[in-house]
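Protocol step 4 of 5: obtain the predicted structure for the target chain.
Materials: sequence only (see below). No template structures provided, no constraints applied. The aim of this step is simply to have a reference model before the mutagenesis design in step 5. Sequence pasted as it appears in the construct record:
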Amino acid sequence: MTAQPAGARAAPLSLLVKIRDLHARAIALTGQARVHDLLSLFLRLTIAGVFWRSLLTKVETFGVWRYIEVINDFEIEKFHIKLPVLPLDLRPTTFAQFRGDFALPLLSAELAAWMATLGEFVLPILLVLGLFTRFAAAGLLVMTLVIQIFVFPEAWWASHALWAAMLLVIITRGPGRLSLDHGLGRMLPR
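Step 4 output (structure tokens):
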């Protein structure tokens, strides 16, 4: 049996120490406020986008920055940005969905359609602005749970768990410094 030189045993150990130190620095970096601020902003924009796109399927919209896309030799008019027509005007298909696939117990289809639409209009705007952020995130979490329980119970792992995780981070950690909540909190006396 041959003895290994001392340097041969120290090299893998030295590499492990360097990996451990790099890991510790990465963990320390993620705990810094700037990283939380950026993460919170990213989560707020991401989950707001999910519910905003759902809103746009329920109401009449108008487009901004028109362009033409050719699909199978057909010109199709598209828009870079779609916004809801104000005042909000629910599409007839929205009421039909809430009478059928989206029917909720104890609520009329009309009331449920308007509640969902107003929630998908107001709460994402509050999230993007970072205004009443925890309230807005809690409202969207309730909507997520209602959708999960009553509308699409098979979609937990596909999407609802991810939405809930993002919303729970916002609720528990707050909106970060890149928010109106933070700015107003600094202006108001304690």
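Step 4 remarks: The mean pLDDT is 90. The radius of gyration is 24 Å.
Proceed to step 5.
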